Records
---
Amino acid sequence: MEKTNIFITGFSGTGKSTVGKHLARMLGWTFVDTDRYIERQKDKSIIDIFEELGERDFRKIESEVINQVCKSQFQVVATGGGSILSEMNRRLMDKNGILVCLEARVGTLCGRLGDTTLKRGNKEVRPLLAGSELESKIIDLKSERQFVYSMSDYTVHTDDLTVAEVSTIIYRSWKTFEKKNGLFSSWDAASLVHTSETIYPICVGWGILDTISEKINSISKTPVVYLITDSGANKHARRVQTILESADIPSHLFVMQAGEKYKTLDAVSMVYDWLAELKAERSHIVVAIGGGVVGDLAGFVAATYLRGIKLIQIPTTLLAIMDSSIGGKTGVDLNSGKNLVGSFYQPEFVLSDVETLTTLPQRQLFSGWAEALKHGLIKDQGLISEFEKNVELVLNLDKDITTELIRRSLDIKAKVVSSDEHELLGNRIMLNYGHTIGHAIETAGKYEKLLHGEAVSVGMMAAGHISNSLGILTDKQFGRQKALLEMYRLPVDVDGIDITDVKNAMLLDKKTLDGSIRWVLLDNIGHSIVKSDISEKLIIEALNSVIF
C-alpha cells in the first residue's frame, strides 16, 4: 500500500489531537484519534482500561487499533504518546504513511498539562502522569521516549506556534513528500531524509555510480556540473566526468589537495574563484566526490556561492558514506578548532557506491566502521549483533552483507537527521556519541595523530567509561563495546597526546550549552541518553582511561 496517511505522535500536551483535526480539515481527510477509537471500541475510558488491564494489555489493544486504522487511506491519525514505543507500530505507520512528531519544552508541557487538563470530571485522563510531581514525570517519560520520537519523518516544535501554523508546516511537508515520493520510488533508496524544505534520498548499492547521469537529468533539465574532489578520489571523479560526458552533460573538475589541514577558508576562496571564472549559475550543480573533507568543503561552497547552488554528495570513503555526506552539515576548520565555520545545507541526493570502498587503504576502511558501529550503539542493538556475527565478511567487503549493513546503519542516521534538521531539539546530538572527546583528540593531535573514525572510537571508550562509572552502563555492556571496536581493528586508547590540550579543545565543542558540555552516553547497547552534569573529576578519569 502507498503511504497515504499522516500519523501524529509526540508527548501528551504537544497538541496531537487539536492539530490533527485542523490538518484533516485542510486536507479534506478523515481524522482518527486512536485513544478515542479505543474508548468507543471498549466503551470505557482510557484510565478505566489502564486500571483494569494495566499498561501492558492496553498497549496490545492500542497496537490492534493501529493495525485496523492502517487498513484505510487518507487519514490524519493522532496516536497515543506511548504507541510509538512498539517497533511493530512504528513499522506499520512507516509502511502506510509519514510519521510526524510534535515536540514541546518541559515548561510548556507543564503549563498545558495542569490539573484541569489532566482530569475529566474526577477521572484522570492521562494515567501515566497522574499524581504529584508532574514536571519530574514529564522529564522521565520524555527521556525514555526521546530515542523513538527521533525516528519520526518530521518533527515540529510547537511551543511558540499556533495550531494553524503547526498544521500548515505539516501540510507543506506532506505536499513536498507527495511530489517527490513518486520521483524517488524507483531509486531503491536506503532511506529518505525529510527536512523542513525538501526530501532527498540516500542511494546505497554496489556499482551504482553508473546511474549518476540519469539521476542528474531527473533533477535538472539543463544541467551544468562542477565536480569537486581531491587527489585521493580523483580516479572516481574522472570516472564520473566520463559518465556525464557520455550523457552530454557539461562538467568541470576541480582537484584540491587532500587532507583535513586543507579544509580551510583559503581553499574555499580558491573554489569560489574557479566557479566565477567558469560563470557558474544558481541553476547549476556542485558535486562533491571524495571523503568527508571534500564533502564538507564542497557543501559549504554550494551553500554560500551565489547564496546557494544545487549540491550532490558522492562519498567514496566509508567514513563519508556513514557520516559527513548525510545531514547537511557543511563547513571548514579554523586554527582553534574543527568545523567552526559552516552551515546546514542539504543535497539533492546522496549516491554511495559501496564498490568504491575496494580502493581504500585498510586503515581508512577500518576507521569508517566507527561511525557505522556508533549508529548501532546508540539506536539498534540488533544491528550491533549483525556486526558481531559478520566481522570477517564485513572486513573483507562482502558485497551483499556490507551493502545491507551500511543501508541499515544509514537509515538510522537519516531518521535522526530528519527529526532534528538544525540540531535544535536535542535529538540529533545523539549522533555525536564519542565525538566530544574524539574531536578534541583530533584537534590536540593537529589532525595527524589519528584518523577521524579512530578518534571517535577512542572517544566512545571515554564516553563508555563515564557511562559505566555513573552506573548506567554495566561492566558487561561496556566490555561488549570494547570488544566490538577491537573486532573492527579500531583503537580503544591513544598515546602521545597532552590531556591539557584535549581539555582545552573540548571547551570549544559545539555541543556545549550555557557553558556546560552535553555528553552523549549509553545506558544500554542500542540506547543513548544525554547528560550535562558530569563532574570534572569523572571527565579527567575518563581521559586518563584512554590517553597515555
---
Amino acid sequence: MRNIQPSTLRIGRRYRPGRLNGPYDALVIGSGIGGLTTAALLAELGWRVAVLEQHYTAGGATHSYERAGYEWDVGVHYLGDMGARTTVRRMMDFLTQGQLDWAPMDAHYDRFFIGDRVYDAVAGRAEFRDNLVAHFPREAQAIDRYLQLLGEVSRGMRTFTLDRTLPPWAAAVAGPLLRRRLPPSFDRTTWEVLSELTDDPELIAVLTGQWGDLGLPPKRSSFVIQALIAKHYLHGGFYPVGGAWRIADTILPRIRATGGEVFTYARVEQVLVQEGRACGVRMADGNEIAARCVISDAGAINTFARLLPAEVAGQHGYDRLIEGVKPSIGHLGVYIGLQGTAEEFRLPKTNYWIYPGNDYDAALDRFLADPDGPFPAVYISFPSAKDPDFARRHPGKATIEIVAPAPYETFAPWAGRTWGQRGEDYQALKQRYGERLLEHLYDKVPQVRGRIDYWEVSTPLSMKWFCGWERGELYGLDHDPSRMRQRWLRPRTKVPGLWLTGQDIMSCGVSGAMMGGLAAATAIAGVRRMAPVMKQVFG
C-alpha cells in the first residue's frame, strides 16, 4: 500500500450556487442508479431535474476511480440480463441512449470454491440445470422445482411492484387483493424454501453461492431477493464496456436535455418542509433550493433519520418505522494493480467465490464474533479481463478486486476522522486485513504473487465517507423477509412532495435500484403520463 491520492476520474458538474439553473421541477438527493433513473425518466417528460450528489463524482456505487495509473469499479462487478432484450436491458439501453455496450463474461461466469470442492454457475437455463444435475444426479427434481420457483418469484415481483406504486386510494382498494396473489415464498427465508426441496446442504450451498450479491446468507435472506438475483444471472454475466463509470456518464445527457444537471460536492443537509409539504432542500453551504418535489436516493434511514426534520419524521411515525429495519453489512475491498496485461497474467473472465464450507450462516456468525477468524466469503473479480476496452485506456496494465464482508463495529473507532487522515493504527488494521485477503488471491491465482505493483484497502468507513451510508452498508437495508413486509418502503412517503427511490423500495443491486427508480418515476408522474415513455422503452 502507498499514500493515497484523490481520484482523477469524475462525472458530473461541481456544485456552486451560481451554477443552479432553476426553477426545478424536482430535486434528487443522491446519484446512484436509482436516483439517475428517476431523474432521466422525469426529464423525458420535460421535467427540469437537479441531482445533488455529495461525492466528488456521480454514480453512487456504480462509480469508478483512478489512482496510481489504474482504474477500478467500486460496486459494479457484473450484471445479468444484458444478453437479450430483457426488461433490464431495455431499461438500461433507454437510459444510456444505446451508448453503453456490454461484454459477455465466460460461460462459466461464477466459480464457487466451497471448502475443497469447486462448482461453476453456467450461462443458460438448460446449461445451468444440466451442470447442476451432473454434480447432484439424485437431485434433478429439486433442481427443476427450484428453476420453477425462480419464474414464480419473478412473476410475483410484478404484483409486488404494482402494489408499491399505486396511489393511496387505489392501494386501499386493490392492495389486499394484490398481496394475496403473491406466492408464499415472499414471506420466507431462502433456507426455509430450499430445505423443502432438498436435504442436501451442499446443493443448497451451490444454489446460494451468490449470497454475497445480496449481503445475507440463506437462513437470514429473503428467498424473493435470492431468487431474483439467481434469475438475473441465469443467462450469464456481463460487464460494461469502458468501466462502470460509463453508466452515469451515458445517463447524464438525458437529464441535461431539459435543463437539468447532476451536481457533485453537493451535500444536502435537510429537506425543507413548509405547511406539511416538502418544497426543497438546504445545502451544506446554507443555500436553499426550491422545487415542486424532493426525491431521495439516500436510503430510507438517511432520509427519515437525518434529512427530514425530526419533528416531521416523528409526526408521521417514521422515527418508529425505521427502528423496524436495519442496514446491511459492510465490506472490505482490496484494489490491486498489476504491471502487465490480463492476458499475460492469464486472468479469467470468471468471478471467484471462496467459502470455508457449505454452512454460510455459521461461517458468518463465527466471523462476526471474531473478525480475526476466517472470512465467511471472499469474492474476487478481474475487471481488466472482463472489459475489452481496458487495454486501450490502460495499456500494459491489469486490475483485480477482492471483496469480503466486514462489520462496521470493527472500524467504528475511527469513524469521526477525515478520509486519508485516520492515523497509523487504522492503516495498520487495513494492511492486516488486506494481506489476509491477498493470500486468498494467491491461493487461486498464484501467478500474481510477487507481481503486484499497487494495492489499497477500503473499509465500511470508505462507503460511509464517499456514499453517505451511515454504517458503510453495501446494499442499503437488509434484504430479509421482514424487510419485504414493510409496506411503508414505497416511492410515496407520508410527507407530500417527498418521494423515495432506489434499492430500499425494491431490491438490491444495479438492476434492483434501477427498477426502484422506474417505480418512483411512475408513482410521481402517474401511470397515464408515464405510459408514452414506457411504450418508448419497452415497445
---
Amino acid sequence: MTTRRLLILGPFFYLVLFFLYPLMAILARSLNADSFMGLGPFSTLLTDSYYLERIWFTIWQATVSTLFTVAVGLPVAYLFAKHRFPGKTVLKAVSTIPFIMPTIVVAMGFLALLGPQGIVNSVLVGSFDLDAPPVRISNTLLIIFMAHAFYNYSIVVRIVSTFWANLSPRLEESAAMLGAGRFETFVHVTLPLLLPAIVSSAVLAFAFAFTSFGVVLILGGPEFATLEVVTYELAAKLFRLELAGALAIIQLVFTYLFLVIYTKFQAGAAVQVELVPRGNTSMHRRRLRDTVFVFSLILGLLAILSPLWALLERAISSGEGYSLVNFISLFSNETGSYFYRSPLSVIGNSVRFAICTMVIAVTVGTIVSYYLARSQRQNAGILDAIFMMPLGVSAVIMGFGFLIAFDQDPMDLRASWTILVIAHSLIAYPFVIRSVLPTLRGIPIHLREAAAVLGASPAKTFFHIDMPILSGALLVGATFAFAVSMGEFGASLLLVRPEFTTMPVAIFRLLGQPGDSNIGQAVALSTILMVIVAIGFILIERFRYKDMGGF
C-alpha cells in the first residue's frame, strides 16, 4: 500500500467515526420503539398534523426564501459581471460579508434594524411622535425571508457573476443585430446560458434556508418553527429522543433527495458555452442612464448591508448618546444569572475551540485534497462526494447525533470540550477542501517531474514545490475553518456545557433573559463576534489565489 493510500485512511476513519457513526446512532434511536418494526416514531410524525405542517412549512419557506435570494442576487451579479467602476473589487468583497457571518449575528442585526427597539422604529417614533413602533415584522415570515435573502444572496453573486462575466458576448451581439432589444436578448439568449449557474446557486441557497436554525429560532416563533427548530426542541427541551431521531432522519432524506434531483437536473441543463476572459465581456457604460443604473445598484447593495451597520450602531449607543456602556456591562452580572460567564472566558473559549478546529480541519482537508488531486477523475468524483457529505447535514442534527452516540464509555465525550471541536471540524473541513483542491489541481505537473528527475522524494517535492504554492489557499481554508467555528451555533447549543460556553450560545442566552441590560450585552457580544469574523474574511479575500476555491 502506497504512502498516499495510507494517509487517506486517517481522514476516512475520522469521517466514519465522527460522522457516519452518529448518523447511525440517530437511526438506531429512531427505530428503538415498542411498536411494529420500531417504526412508531415515524408513524407518529407522518400522521400527526403538527409535524406534517412543520415538514411542509420548512419546504415552503425554503422555496420562498430561495426566490427572494435569487431576486436580490441577480441584479448584483449583473452589476459585477457587466460593469466596471472604481472600487469594484472592494465592493465585491464587501458584498460577500453576509455569507460568512454567523447566523446569530445576522439575526441580531435584523433585530437591531427592524426590531421593536430597532433603529427604524426608533427613528420613526422620534420623528413623528408615535405611541408605538409602526414597523412590526418581528416574529413574522417576512423578516425570516429577508434574513435568509441577506445571508444567502452572496452565493448567487459569487457563482452567477463569475459565470456571467466569462460568457462570450457574440450571441448577445448577434441578437442585437437581428433587432432584439435588451430585455428580449436577456430572456431568450442570456438567461438560458446562465441557467446552470442560477440553478447551482439556488440549490445552495435552498439548502441553507431548509436547514436554517439560528435565524428561524431568534426571528421567528413557535408558529414558524422549521424541522431544524422542532428537532432541537424535541431533543433539548422535551427529551423525546426517539421522535427527534425520526425527524432528523426525515430531514436527511429530504436533503439528500433534493441534492440527487438537482444533480440530475444540472447534468441535463448544462449547455456548451463559449467562455472568454472577463476583461473582454465587462462593459464600461458611458451613457447617463447606465451610470444612474449602476449607481442605484451600488446604493441598493450598501442598503442590503444595513443590518450589520445597525448592529454596530446599537452596540455603541445608549440613552445619553454614543458610549461603550454595553461593552462595559458585559463584565458585570447585575441580574445574578446562573448562566453568566465573563466575556473574556467566553471569547477565550470560542477562540480556543476555533484554533483547534482550524488545525484539525486543515490537516484533514489538506490530506483529502492531496489524495483527490492525485486520483483518477472517476474515483476522485466518488471520494469527493463522500467527504463532502457533512455539508448536507445540518449542525443541529450533527449535534444531536453526537449527543446520543458519545454518551458512554469508552467514547463518553459529553463532559469534554473536545466534542465541540470535533463537531466544528466536521462542519469546517469541507470548506478547506474546496479552497485547497483547485489550487492543488492547478499546480503544473512538470514542476513535480523536474523535482523527481533531480532526485527529490515525494515528501521533499510536497514541502518544497507544493507547499509554497498552496500557502495562500491553505490560509484561506484555515481562516474559513476559524470563522465557521467562531460562529457555529446549532451543534454548540446542544453540546455545550456552562464552563465551555461559546460566543453564539452566550448571545442566545442573553436574549432569553429579560431586561434592556441583557439585550445591550447581547448586541455588544454580537458586535465583537462580527468584528472577529470580519477580520478573518478580510484575510480570506487578501490571500485568495486568483479567485480559486469553491466558496
---
Amino acid sequence: MVNKNLPKVAYFCMEYGLDVSLKTYAGGLGILAGDYMKGAKDHNFPIIGIGLKWKQGYTDQKIGEDGRPYDTYHNYDYDCMKDTGVKVTVKIRQRDVVCKVWEVTEFGTNPLYLLDTDLPENEDNWITGQLYGWFGEERIAQEMVLGIGGVRALRALGIDVDVYHFNEGHALFAGFELVKERMDKGMTFAEAAEASRDEIVFTTHTPIVQGNESHYLDRLMYMGANNGLTLEQLVSLGGSPFNMTVGALKLSRKSNAVAQLHNETANKMWAHIDNRSEIVGITNAIHLPTWVDNRMVDAATNGGDLWEIHMENKKKLVDFVEERNGVKLDANKLLIGFSRRAAPYKRSNFIFTDESIIDPLLKEGKLQIVFSGKAHPLDDTGKEIVENIVRMSKKYPNAVVFLENYDMTIGAMLTRGSDVWLNNPRRPKEASGTSGMKAAMNGILNLSTLDGWWPEACDHGVNGWQFGDGFESEDEKVLDAHDLKALYKVLLEEVLPTYYDNRDKWVEMMKESILSTKDKFAVKRMLEEYYEKLYIKA
C-alpha cells in the first residue's frame, strides 16, 4: 500500500531507462529516472512519472568499417503501453499540437505517463521523434510537450499532485503552465509565480556552466513557450538568453544536486543568481534488483564464495564480447571496464596517454580494457574520442575492445563482469556517476578520481582505489598531467600487484566494496532523502 500521508509527486523527465526494449533513454539521466520509478514502486512511495513517448528514441550509434561512429534511427512500436484514451493540446508555433497520453504498464514501475505527438492530426507529428536529436526550435517544442503538455495530462487524467519535481531544466515549462493556470484565475504574475514555486522542486545534474541549456528569448516567444508570460517576466526568471537551469532554480521552492561534491560545485556555480532556491545535496542511487547480482550481495553478507560467482559473471562478459566483437579475452587476466558518454571532461582514452607505460601491459596481456559509450549525434569532438578508442582496439586487438551502441544490456554486462571499474573525469565535473555504484555492489573495484559519488564511498585500498587526491586546477594540462601520473602509480603499484599476487586481499576488497555501498547507495535511501529534504515542507 502507498503511504497516503506522504505528498504525492509528479516527476518530470525527458528520458526513462526502464528496460533495454523500451527506447526512451539515452544514458545516465534516463537510467536514474527509471531506477527512481522502480524504487517508488518497490517501496510504496506516491510518485508518478511524466515523460515523452519517443518514436525513434536516442541514436543507434554503430561503428563503420572506417572506425568512425555513425548514427542510425529506427521506428519502434510497443505493446508495453496502455492507451489512456486521454489527449491534450499544446499550442506550438501558433498551431495546436495534439498529444496522446500512454501509460507504461510493465517493468515494475509506478505509473509512468508518456506524451506522444505521432498522430495523423498533427502537422508537427515528429516532435516526439528523436530524443536529444535536435537543437533550437525542436528542442523547445519537445520541452513544451513535456512541461505544458505534462501538466495538462495530469489535469485530464484527474490526477492531483502536491509536488512537481523537475528532473533537469527540460521540464521548466511545466512551471510556466502552473503560473498560467493561476494567472487565468486572476492572480498577478508575482502572486502566481510565488504560489507555483511552493509546489515545485528541481534537480540539477550539470556541473559545467556551458552544459546548462539556454535559448534566445525571441525564439521562446515565437514558439509560444512563454505560455502567456511577457518578455519581461521571462527575463525575470531566466535572464537573457534564457537559461533553463536558472529559470528552474528561481521557480522552485527547493533544489538539489546529485552528490555532496556536486552540491558544493552547484552552489558555487549559481551563487550569483538572486532569489534562487536553496540547493541541497541528495546523492544518486541505483535500483539493486535491476543492476546487482544478488548472489554477490548474499555471498558478501553470509560468507559465500565471491570469487567463484564473480568469475561466472566475468566469463559471461568474455563470451558477450566474443559474440559482439569476435575478440576472445582471457578471463584469468585483469579486465578493466569503462562505460561513459564520450565527452572531453570524462577523458575516455586517458589511460592510453603514455604509450611507453601502457603498451607493454596491453601487449603482454596483463591488462584488458572493454569500453562502451555513445557520443551525442551532433558532438564531433565526442565522436573523435570514440574513434580514438576504436583505433586503439585495432592496435591492441586482443586487449582493447569497444562495444558499439551502448545500451542497458551492455551496461549490466560491464558492471557485473569487469574486475575494475575505471572512472577518470576532471574533478569536479562529474555530477554523480551511478555506473560506479552498480560496479561496486557487484564486487567490482572502483579505480577513480575523487569526483561525483566516489568521495563519499572511497576507502582507499579497502573497498577500491582513488587517484589524484582530489586535486583540481583550471589549467587542464596541469590537471591532466597530475592525474595521469597518479593513475599509473596506483595501477602499477597497487591494482596490478594485488590482482596477480594477493588474491585474498582482492576478494576481501570485493567484499568491502559490496558491504560499504549496498545500503548507502540504494534507491530506497535516495527516495527517503527526497521526501525528507525536498518534498515534505519544513
